[in-house]
C-alpha cells in the first residue's frame, strides 16, 4: 500500500510547477488523489490563473484516468495556504528551476523554507526532471534519518528500484589535537560508522526484505558525500531534524545543499517544528518557482 495516497502540488503556472505536477502524477501511478493549488495574494486578479490550473488538471486526468485530480485557486498567504492544504498527511510537492550554485534562487529559497516548516513530507522537484535508477537515503544514526530510511525503502519498493543507503563521515581537524588521539587508530572510527550504517540497513531488511539494498560508506563531509551519491538517483530522501523554530538548519547540511541546488527530486521527512511562532513564519508572497 502506498504511504501517501494524496499529493498537493504548488501551482503557479511556471514550467517548474508543471514539472512538479507531472512528477507527482507519475509517482501516484494513476491512483490516489492529486490536488493542484495556486495561492494568490489579494492584489492578483485570478481569472487567468483559474483557467491555467484547470487546464493542467485536464491534462493530468487524460494521462492518468484513474487518478483523482482536483484544482483550486485560493487567496491568502502562499506559504500558509500550502502548508495548511498539506496538513492532512500527504505529500507537498514543489517544483523549482534546477541550479548548481550554492546560493538558492528565490523559488528554491521558498521551497527550502517550506521544507523546514511543513508538518508533512515535502518533495522538491527540479525542472527539468532527470530519470534515475535508484532511491538514495542519507543515514546519520538519528531517529529522523531512520524514519527517512524506512520511507525511502517504501518509495524504492513503490518504484521497483534498488535502495542505496549513504552514510558520510569525516574527522574534524580538531581531533588531531585532542589528548589521546592516535591517527593509526582511525580505522576504529570507520568501523563504528560502518556499524551505524549496517544497523539501519538491517532494520530496513527486516521491514522490506523485497527491496534490493546497497550500503555505501563515504569518507567525506556529510553534504558533499550525500550530494555526490545523489547523482543519477530517481529520488533522494533525507530526514528533518527536530526543533522548536522552523529554520533551514533543521534540514541539515545535506538537505540544505540538495534543496539549494535542486538537481534531483528530494524528499524531506521527519519531525515537524514544534508550534513555530507566527512571526517566524513570515508573510511574503510566493515567488515564481520557475
From TrEMBL:
Gene3D superfamilies: HUPs. It holds the Pfam family Usp. SUPFAM superfamilies: Adenine nucleotide alpha hydrolases-like. Residues 7-126, 133-269 form the UspA domain. Belongs to the universal stress protein A family. This is Universal stress protein family protein. It comes from Amnibacterium kyonggiense. The lineage of its organism: Bacteria, Bacillati, Actinomycetota, Actinomycetes, Micrococcales.
Amino acid at each position: 500500500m502506498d504511504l501517501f495516497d494524496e499529493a498537493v502540488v504548488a501551482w503557479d503556472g511556471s514550467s517548474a510547477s508543471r514539472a512538479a505536477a507531472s512528477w507527482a502524477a507519475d509517482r501516484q501511478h494513476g491512483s490516489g488523489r492529486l490536488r493542484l493549488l495556486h495561492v494568490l495574494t489579494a492584489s492578483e486578479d485570478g481569472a487567468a490563473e483559474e483557467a491555467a490550473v484547470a487546464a493542467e488538471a485536464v491534462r493530468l486526468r487524460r494521462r492518468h484516468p484513474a487518478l483523482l485530480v482536483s484544482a483550486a485557486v485560493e487567496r491568502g498567504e502562499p506559504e500558509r495556504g500550502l502548508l495548511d492544504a498539506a496538513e492532512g498527511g500527504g505529500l507537498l510537492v514543489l517544483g523549482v528551476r534546477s541550479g548548481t550554485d550554492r546560493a538558492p534562487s528565490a523559488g528554491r529559497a521558498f521551497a527550502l523554507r517550506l521544507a523546514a516548516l511543513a508538518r508533512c513530507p515535502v518533495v522538491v522537484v527540479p525542472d527539468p526532471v532527470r530519470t534515475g535508477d535508484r532511491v538514495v537515503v542519507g543515514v546519520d544514526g538519528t531517529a529522523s534519518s531512520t524514519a527517512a530510511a524506512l520511507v525511502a525503502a517504501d518509495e524504492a519498493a513503490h518504484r521497483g528500484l534498488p535502495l542505496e543507503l549513504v552514510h558520510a563521515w569525516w574527522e574534524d581537524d580538531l581531533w588531531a589535537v585532542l589528548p589521546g588521539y592516535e591517527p593509526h587508530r582511525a580505522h576504529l572510527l570507520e568501523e563504528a560508522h560502518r556499524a551505524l550504517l549496517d544497523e539501519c540497513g538491517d532494520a530496513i531488511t527486516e521491514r522490506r526484505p523485497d527491496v534490493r539494498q546497497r550500503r555505501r560508506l563515504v569518507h567525506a563531509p556529510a553534504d558533499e558525500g550525500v550530494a555526490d551519491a545523489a547523482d543519477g538517483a530517481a529520488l533522494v530522501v533525507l530526514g528533518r531534524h527536530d526543533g522548536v523554530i522552523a529554520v533551514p538548519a533543521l534540514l541539515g547540511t545535506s538537505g540544505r545543499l540538495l534543496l539549494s541546488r535542486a538537481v534531483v527530486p528530494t524528499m524531506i521527512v521527519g519531525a515537524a517544528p514544534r508550534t513555530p511562532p507566527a512571526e517566524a513564519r513570515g508573510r511574503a508572497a510566493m515567488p515564481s518557482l520557475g
